[in-house]
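Protocol step 4 of 6: record predicted structures for both targets in the notebook before any analysis. Target 1:
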Amino acid sequence: MYEFLSETAPPVLLFGILMGIYAFGDFLTKKSKALIPSIFVMVLLMAIGAWTGILPPNIIQRTGFTGMGAVASSIIVVNMGTSLHIKDITSNWRVALLGVVALIGVAIGCMTIGAYLFGWDQAVIATPVVGGGIVAMLEMQNAAGELIANAEAIGDAAGVTRGELLQALAALVLSVQSLPAFLIIPPIIKKAMRRDLDTVSDAEFKEVASTQAGPTTSKPTIIPEQYWSTATILLFLAIVGTVAIYLNQWLRTFMGNYAIATSVLALIISIVLTEFRILPRNANVKAGVSGLIFLIVIINAFSSVLTINLDQFISLLPPIAGMIFFGIIGIFLATFVVAKFIFKMDTGFAFVLGLNCLLGFPLNFVLTTESIDVVANGDEEKKAYLTAKYVPMMLVAGFVTITIGSVILAGIMRGFL
């Protein structure tokens, strides 16, 4: 059915089709004010295209994206480390701890009831993805890819199919995990904000409102600014990624599958180098390649949906919905206990902070600012107060869960596959 996309079709045509799918997802996201995730739209269109025969299953390979996928994945992990501000986390340590607690809740929910209902392998694959973002998903897809390679080596066709389904499961969980958060977060956070405005003292109100949240400034790097060209930045990121790979291989010689994952090592190394001002902050942005690198990673990450048919997709719906549901229940219970009995804080808002692992930046920022606009209702002082107080907490919660916690969790969980 895709004669116009035959093997002789130029790669630039296939590239344009993929960009059209991605752009349409972005359009719907902006039009719906982020209520419809662009990733969900992209995955749905790619899946429908594959099922109907409109899109060839090898469209991504033929555009050349596959060759850059592994490189882009490594670069984006290292870049995440360069965007971390340790001081931002330490000043909101309770929020950071709640993020960790939320991930523990996800693991408990998915690896107990989820594993019992849907199977151990599916629980292992889904848990870090429910608790994190794109990097956690890539880590688990790589783990499933090792299963595929082992099955191919011994001619186990069923094992290959199992590995492909696990890869698709990781992609599909990530594509829909934010949807429940869109429904849960706004009413709870708006209620917390209104209660806050009713109880806050005038002195605290003026103090917080006068200190609007802004980006953390960073000192110049050891290398002079003029030498940080696009190529130089990418060179340093590639070096860090390479060191992480070889370090992981060395650790595997005596730790086996329980060795610290490459992505975790890359994250740790990049955080340390950034704190010592060897790497620049937000390296990909500074190099001007942030959008391109992310696009390459996204397109490759969801290529697995092109390899499954409609029946297989339907078979994955119960574990997708179940893992996300039990993950959310785990987040609620874990954050409730810590907030009520240890921190003595609003349990509803603690739940919202924990749900950041389903969103991350910029979705958590969008939901927070939109809620602030509704609650402030045009009062600039109230808006300033709510922005200064709630935006940093939501950003830290998302950063701790997705940028750090989920990557570490994925590195741990892949050893149980």
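Target 2:
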Amino acid sequence: MQEGQFSRTALGAAGHRAVHQVREGGRIFADPLALRILGEDAAPILAEAEDHPARRGLRMFIAVRSRFAETAARRAMNEGARQIVVLGAGLDTFAYRLEPIDGLRAFEVDHPSTQTEKRRRLAAAAINVPEHLTFAPCDFERAGLAEALRAAGFDDSRRAVFLWLGVVPYLTRAAILSTLGFISAMPGGGEVVFDYSNPSHTIVDPDQRSAHELLATKVAHAGEAFQTYFVTSELHEMLRALGFSRVEDMGPREMAAKFFPDRASPARANGGHVIWAAR
């Protein structure tokens, strides 16, 4: 993102989550705060969605990744985890929808400019910041995640689940490895959900490849270009080398089978993925 500016891709992702509540009734991912947090942007975003039905594919992917991530977080909470970290939180509302649980701590880690804009929107929408939530400002490319979290009261000796959506493609490989290394080395046990994309030249379906390349051009023009892609098999090897022993990867084929069984399944699994990894 550009220095000193609110992330436009964060607003775009929030818009897709909100439109999903209206166009598909939140069938895949329900978020009653999605429209409210958009504030003055809600009406134009909904109007634009009506004019661009081709955006449905990206909207569905964002809905699926949100559901996948929140399901993993709630599963960890049911198993006793009491620290939830939302990395690159943008306008995500998960922490504001979490039911109070004794000992629960949620941390939103993001660029200071984006956090400032989010807090403005929360106040304007009368969305209260829950007692369990702490904001932890951090620039992933320039500052240490560990230091930012510890300053906010995070305890790496306790189990934690990290939700890292819509961020990894925009970072350098070094920054990604640094964050994953921190999570995998946590004494208390860490797990992470993040999304990634295969290189565009490996996406066989021409419509899907064209849609991805169009998105890449759009975010680059917004000053937030994609920087990193992963070949799935190589990413899994990298995660194992970092110490993650359990990996669940949902690609286009798995998403189609689970959420869109009435549609033809993609011939190959290349494209956008969402992945869960734990030690």
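Step 5 preliminary note on target 2. The longest strand covers residues 190-197. The first helix runs from residue 8 to 23.
Proceed to step 6 after PI sign-off.
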